[in-house]
Amino acid sequence: MLDGIRKLLMVRMYEKSQLMVGSRDEICPRIRLKIEEEKMKSKFCILKPSTASRFEVEVNDDTFMVDLNNKTCICRQWDILGIPCNHAISCINFMKCNLNDFVADCFKKTVYEGCYQFALPTLNGKKMWPATSEEPLLPPPFRKLPGRPKKDRKRSNGEKKKDEKSKRVRKPRVTNTDPTKISKSGITMKCSNCHGTGHNKATCPQPSAPIQIKLPGKRGRPRKHPKQLTIEGGASNKQSESASTRSITGQSNIVNSEKRRVRSLQVDFI
């Protein structure tokens, strides 16, 4: 792997060194493209000179101060990048100066060629290496460590552990293709406790409602002409029913007492 990286760097440095050999421009190609873009923007600048090196440049409703001697502009693009901004380019063209003199030296051809003047040396293969009289370099002898051997490989610093890996994504459910069954997809849940939507009884935030026991209804055929009772009639019927039940219970008690008396007399007679 290291030998492959060395070869890539060797080829890259050669290609970069040959990039500016046939170029007649003093500025690097990418920097030249940025300067051309700023030239197009400088057409909308209106400058007002104060001295031979200081200007006020108006763009729309903004005003910028430019100093050619110090190579500064109030927008700070020239100070940070080292490439003249559109305000400075309009002033340079007004003074009929060479634009290349106001570009930072690190973007010029001479500095670029100096960076790639050195090259990586070529190397022979393993078979062409000179032999030595020393013993060959071998790995240390294998020594069995105590405990159960580890099966997991050693992970890199930025790699996640086995338990931290994301869980498997569940496969999407296959929709029901049976025409006799109705799919439940898209149906909103309804709670049987609060009768709200979006949740069920298990996750309902409201307190559980009391259970209402439903009594079984009367069996049999319903009457054709059911009795229609008013409120007053219903109350009087209830009173009459309670009085009749009291009279029946009283009569049954009297009969039972007479039976007990007769039995006692029969026993005495015997």
List the helices and strands and how they pair.
Elements: H1 2-19, H2 29-41, E1 46-49, E2 54-59, E3 62-67, E4 72-73, H3 77-81, H4 86-94, H5 109-115, H6 231-269
Antiparallel strand pairs: 1-2, 2-3, 3-4
Quickly list its features.
270 residues, alpha+beta, four-stranded antiparallel β-sheet, 4 strands, elongated
Task: Summarize this entry quickly.
This protein is α+β, with helices and mostly antiparallel strands. It is 34% helix and 7% strand. It has six helices and four strands, in the order H-H-E-E-E-E-H-H-H-H.
Notes on the structure:
With 270 residues, this protein is an alpha+beta fold. It has a domain at 27-107. It is 34% helix and 7% strand. It has a 4-stranded antiparallel β-sheet with strand order 1-2-3-4. 7% of the residues are buried. GO terms for molecular function: zinc ion binding.
Spell the H/E element sequence: HHEEEEHHHH
What is the C-alpha radius of gyration, as a whole number of Å? 52 Å
Can you summarize the main beta sheet? 4 strands, antiparallel
What value does the average pLDDT take?
Answer: 81
Number of helices: 6
Strand arrangement, major sheet = 1-2-3-4
Low-confidence stretches: 229-236
- Secondary structure: helix percent: 25-40%
Beta content: 5-15%
Distance between the termini: 129 Å
Given the helix and strand composition, which structural class is it?
A: alpha+beta
- The beta-strand count equals 4
Shape: elongated
Organism: Eucalyptus globulus
Keywords: Metal-binding, Zinc, Zinc-finger
GO molecular function: zinc ion binding
Pfam family, one: SWIM
